[in-house]
Amino acid sequence: MSFSKVESAVSALADLYPSEYSFLVAFSGGLDSTVLLDALSKRFPAERLRAVYVHHGLQSEADHWEAFTRAFCSARHISYQSVSVTVPDAARQGVESVARQVRYEALYAQLDDKTVLLTAHHQRDQAETFLLGALRGAGVAGLAAMPFEKTVSYDRKPLSHCRPLLQVPYQALKAYAAHYQLNWVEDPSNQDVALKRNFIRHALLPKIHQAWPNPEQSLSQSAERVSESLGLLDDLAEMDLQNCTANHYQLALGPLVSLGMSRVKNALRYWAKTQASQVTLNAKVYDWLETSLQNTNPQAHPKLKQAQCDFYVYRQTLYALPETLPVDYRVAWSAFEPAQWYFSEPFDKRLEIDQAWPKPEFSDWVVRAMTDLEAEALGPKTQLRKWFQTRGVPSWDRNRWPVLEIDGKAVAILGGYTNFSGRD
Description:
Blueprint: H1 4-11, H2 13-16, E1 22-26, H3 31-43, E2 49-55, H4 62-75, E3 79-84, H5 95-108, E4 115-118, H6 123-135, H7 140-143, E5 149-154, E6 157-162, H8 170-179, H9 196-209, H10 215-241, E7 250-252, H11 254-257, H12 261-274, H13 283-294, E8 303-305, E9 310-314, E10 317-321, E11 330-332, E12 365-369, H14 372-377, H15 381-391, H16 395-398, E13 402-406, E14 409-413
Helix pairs in contact: 1-3, 3-8, 6-9, 6-10, 10-12
Family: Belongs to the tRNA(Ile)-lysidine synthase family.
Binding site for ATP: 28-33
GO cellular component, one term: cytoplasm
């Protein structure tokens, strides 16, 4: 197997990303990322490269791997950073999944709009991912496996992630490492066949090789063809979402319900992919959502707890919210953005206050949560409850709804409610 396939794949990045772009390489010190970073260092100037080692602390050898990656980059004058992360309790998802999520979050945090994340996934990785998806009954998105290039949403910013070696056979990486006499580190957990990906790699793929000469290439091609179908579904979802109110934590599904659950699920998948990075979708979520959307009881507030967020359905709108919503907030009027505090739509900053109050540019206008005493001062509870219901405000927002405070006094509820009475 010729190692030139590695060099050709890396050289192609020059056409994809002009000189104003830099590359951040996820560098573990293993064979794959070592080959990628070495090939990059031979093709691009060092000032366009940066390597990041994510230290999970899950393996006793992690400090040794960090030292290896640091020395490797120093020898090539590549900017290097080691980022330590903590992997939380993985009881709900498994260590592999949680560690991967934490690792990517650490990498995304280092990016900007002119820095592209490069990871060293290759053709065998793609074949394994396709098989993993098929064996767990994945849909089109799962069978499309890993895209060569994608835009990810992190902290509500679009970021770029590319896998330049995705069509390169694993044997080409080994040939490259042998030709240039590279050293790398070995993660012993990669041999643990109790992990499903390792079982596919060490037990299943060798058996398939006995009947098919190049199964990795064939499986990778299948993933690519499924990816083309996924692109069409993305186009459909984008058109459907034009009719829906959406942001990074809520999606109004009412306009889509009459089109059938398949369209709802497709739009939801695309929304999570493009706007709501904290959302993980699976069959349990889809089944719960279908049941919740069919519930006609106006007093029902369906809720589903998940690892990354809690799901709610209210008036055919799906909310994906943190477990604990901010209640004790206090922010300047000019800086207050409802979406930053996970408030439901519709919402705006309309006010009904006396003209006698000073304008915001001449006074300290503050937005904070309404207190119980202030709610009582507005009149009968039924009156405020009716206003919330009329505006479609869900129950979890009502005890933290924002009021405007001027010179230490609450003067109005944001959203157009009546003045506070009894002011001095």
